[in-house]
Amino acid sequence: MKRKFNYLLLLPLLALFASCSRDVFDEYYGRPDYLEDPIYQQLDARGNFKNFTALIQKAGYKDILSKAGYWTMFAPNDAAFEKYFQDNSISDVSKIDDATAAKIVRYALVYNAFREDQLSDYQGSKGWEVDNAFRRRTAYYDGFLNKTINGQPKVIVGSNRNGANNYISGDNNNKYISYFTKEYFEAKGLSSFDFNYFYPNATYSDFNILDSKVTEADIIAENGIIHEVDKVNVPLVNIDQYLEEDSAKGTGSKYSSFRNVVENNLVSYNFNQAATNTYFNYTGKSDNVYVKTYDSGLSFAPNNENYLKETDNDGQSDAYTLLVPENTKFDEFKRDVLLKHYASIDKLPKYVFQDLVNAHMVKNAVWPSKASSFDNALGEDLRFDFNTDVIEKKVLSNGFFYGVNKVQKSNLFYSVYTSAYLDPNYSLATRLFNDGSGIKEMISNIKNKYVLFLPSDNLILSMGFRYDANYTQWVYTNPVTNVTVSGGPARSALYRILYNSIVYTPHGELDNIATTSGIIRSGDYDLPGEYIKWSNNKVYAAGNEYYGNAVNITGKDVQQNGTTYYVDNLLLYSPQPQGYKIKALGEAVGSQFSTFYNYLKNSRIYNAATGEIQGVVLGTSYTFIVPNNTAMAQAVTDGILPASTAPTLESDIEKVKDFIAFHILVNKTASDDGLTTGQFETLRKDSFGEKTYITVESTPGTLSFKDLNYRTANYIKAQSNNLADRSLIHLVDNYLKFTQQ
């Protein structure tokens, strides 16, 4: 017989067990008693944040700030709101609309919880960097904005990256808030001067949020940390928005001329499908969304709140700086500099606008006391006196803004480079200067003085050079042979000609070119070019002497770092081997080069058909040291050379070859200008195949050569400095003797 069991008797027992289990669960997993209240409850309980808690409720953030989380709140107290009401002519917190409430609350709210002593530290990709931060990302962002662009209504969103890839979907472009702490200021060598430069009517307190003071720091909450502040901070505009607000003032605008140049030439509005999808999901509206895009050639996008975003938090440690000239000075600059050779501003090449704006951009936060240690995006020092040239200064959400009463005196606009750069008649020379050749950087350096012999586009074209934009390459057609080369060889040929047209003149050596004559080395001090000659407004390179066509100077343009001379011909290099030039010198009636040439022409290292000397290559630098006839006779007497200029004995043939080779310097062109001194390699090798050397001594007006026995050969000035391909040929009063070491 089965016994019956009354299951109803189990119900009280189950209820008892369940009650015990819940008590244990709550005790284990429940909120610990020692935890502080969440941010909202903390603010509410303190009693002096009534206005702020009212805004938190109005903004819909009460629930968020009452739950678990990890926030920093810069909370304005009630006294701060009383001043805010007065400044904005409102009676109480009820008059603040929901949108403004959300702005105030979200801009006071920073992601992650930071004590005062942590705020000066940067959350780098490899860990905390102590005392290297003065900004934090807030919960506020502008999002999608309705604007009228060129008369058309559009939904606009700002760039959230710099460069070509300027918009990343899912990044809201949150605004940053800046603060100023004792730890950061001491680490960076800053002081209250830097704070008061931006906020002259505020007091630096060692812990300021913008221009407000932190009256109580490190109020610990369950879901973060509260810092009480004495001012209501509304979201700051970014640099782009500040300029837009200024332009909206119409005749009261200070910076609209600069902004118009940027907006008309370096800004575009580009449809973005990802942003359009996000906008639809957020609003249910089907409008197309356009990203306001700044040209990728700029150092940064003034509407990007994210700084560089090379690491996620790099905006904590740095920010942008833009210095903007006020309208009057900028308009003067446009008239006198930009439009000197252009009919209107829209005719200028885009790279001019890029350079102009980059000259006023710094990809760092430029602190006023440290301004001299920063360079602009062109690598130039900032040429502003921060005591007298700055008329307005602002800390904005993505950087510092300085309104200035002058235009940056950029190298590009006040140098010999400018003569080509800002004149459409010289665009071909400018193209080559700008293509990474290094010429642009060299001749635009206003700290060094140069002369530029500048050929026009028409002249370059007439000489057979052109630029093929379809294939992005240079093309050269020889006007005589009609043979065409393109790409690298064509560019190299024009580069050599234009580099030969640049002369470093630290002492104004060519200032009086119309009434003087002489020889001078082209190129830069660190990267020498070839030697050229001038005489009474005419200039010659080796090729001009070869072809018999001088370069005439037709005009000039005086710039801050020298003079540009406009010319009617190119400074050409010679296609002729150097041996032919020695031949011409040696065959002249009564020539002092004749004995040396007679030995050369009969030697085994000379090719009479081509004029080539064995081991001497066209396009390479050389110095030819030619003993005069008397010195050559002495070499014969001393047994250094055979008596016959056409020896038949092998030993004598070798003597001649070695003698000539020892009088040719390799990879170096020496003249009487003091630029080349020291010990240099010759063409001769010793019996072990090792290099041999000669010492060059030179000062302005003197030139001599010494062998290892200190035998000296002095140049004979009147018959020296003869031009050949990348070479000079000198007549000297002695021969040099090689001694095997």
TrEMBL record:
Boundaries of each FAS1 domain copy? Answer: 36-233, 580-736
Which InterPro entries does the entry mention?
A: Adhesion/Biosynth-related, FAS1_dom_sf, FAS1_domain
Q: Name one Pfam family in it.
A: Fasciclin
Gene3D superfamilies on file: FAS1 domain
What keywords would UniProt list here? Signal
**What SUPFAM superfamilies does this protein's entry cite?**
FAS1 domain
Could you tell me what this protein is called? Fasciclin domain-containing protein
